[in-house]
Amino acid sequence: MKQVPIIDTHTAARMVKDGDTLLQGGFGMTGNPVHLMHALAELGTKDLTFIGNNAGEVGLGGGRLLKNGQLKKLIGSFFTSNPDAVKAVQAGQIAYELLPQGTLAEALRAGGAGIGGFYTPASAGTLIAQGRETKEIDGVEQVFIKGLRGNVAFIRAWRADTAGNLQYRMTEQNFNKAMATAADLVIAEVEEIVPVGEIKPEHIHTPCCYVDYLVQATLTLEDLGMSASVSSSKKVDESRMNMAKRALEELKKGDVVNLGIGIPTLVADLITEEHDIILHTENGMLGVGPVPADGGGAMDYPVNAGKIPVTALKGSSYFDSADSFAMIRGGHIDVAIMGGLEVDEAANLANWAVPGKPLLGVGGAMDLAKGAKRLIITMTHTNPDGSSKIVPACTLPLTASGVVSLIITELAVFNYTDNQLTLIELMPNATLEEVRAKTSASFVEKLN
């Protein structure tokens, strides 16, 4: 079998030319080819179009290229987490294109499979869809997305054999697997290189025909940034925990459930084996367990969508981001629990665009809102200024239309009985008068 050349990081970085489109694997700093990115930062290669879920952290991975001014355009899902990206966009120094996380993963898979594009319901009717072709398919509005390819892909795997076959570790598949198929030149940074035959065929995730060069580089805690460890201190106020407990009551044995960041993550702390609930995380894991009790971090454990190290329960499985969102869009997620900024009388949700901040992070919410069989929103009843979050019609940019099944706040629980916003329950210590006073939307009352 062929032998793939093994090179150093600087030789690899010199293969990227000014003006190239560069694919960078990773979800946060997990599965991030950080050593290759840092070598490229040292060369000063410029005018690059960067395609990735996010641009790394400040000074790490793609964040280092961003700080150097080497990137002319960002194409990805979540750049808000890097303050340098926000500053560059606000200053007009860099262009950007946002795609929902699942759309980004599928666009890379399409590009790698020689498919020109595809239609998806994610982002239909939102700002993300503006300027894109849309059509109705089987009664559902869908948005056309072109396949994505790059000149060079920098990816990260755990092991490679000398033929270039790759094996990923835990949640490190994320965007790496699709990106390995979608570039003219693929360079894989790996922890270990072994002789051909040492990786069993059934353990190979990326076959050797996709990989052009290998680079051996050892990860350290510093390379993982904020994902390196778990904080042992976690203070949660009573009202937030009450919302999480009420959301848990909605889940049934055997449900496959996706939890968004914020209040929804608290539900995970309440789930026990007796609940028999399977937690899904969009970066590529089914069977998510609680955070590690030993204080271990992302060097030892998988991470969830909040980039927090978690444990794996018996029967857990790992996969890449494209497969993860195929589960979501394909209707295999029973319940999604998300936070919200606004929900209105028509069950529309707005939860991705924070008022007064650049629209730089959409994440996986649009795919989940459209794809989950049931969508539960947990959020505070009002904004800090006292204005209602349950409104007649959303004024913030929409995440999805007509998708919300249940709203849980610290004051009340609403559903959409007969397609009408309906108050069905008061939360502990709340009064009907308070709910009426703090809710600007019209609703009917069917309290138990």
Structural description of this entry:
This is 3-oxoacid CoA-transferase. Its EC number is 2.8.3.5. Keywords: Transferase. One of its GO terms (molecular function) is succinyl-CoA:3-oxo-acid CoA-transferase activity. Belongs to the 3-oxoacid CoA-transferase subunit B family. Belongs to the 3-oxoacid CoA-transferase family. There is one protein chain. The protein has helices at residues 9-13, 34-43, 62-68, 83-90, 101-112, 176-179, 238-248, 265-270, 321-329, 365-371, 432-438; strands spanning 21-24, 48-51, 71-76, 95-98, 117-120, 134-137, 140-146, 150-161, 166-167, 183-194, 213-216, 256-259, 278-281, 285-288, 312-318, 335-338, 342-344, 349-350, 374-378, 390-391, 406-408, 412-417, 420-426, 444-445. With 448 residues, it is an alpha/beta fold. The mean pLDDT is 93. It folds into two domains: 9-219, 3-Layer(aba) Sandwich (Glutaconate Coenzyme A-transferase); 238-445, Glutaconate Coenzyme A-transferase (3-Layer(aba) Sandwich), CATH 3.40.1080. A ten-stranded mixed beta sheet has the order 15-14-13-12-16-19-21-22-23-24, with helices on both faces. Strands 1, 2, 3, 4, 8, 9, 10 and 11 form an eight-stranded mixed beta sheet that branches. The longest helix has 12 residues, at 101-112. The chain has eleven helices and 24 strands. Helix 2 packs parallel to helix 3, helix 5 packs across helix 9 (321-329) and helix 9 runs parallel beside helix 10.
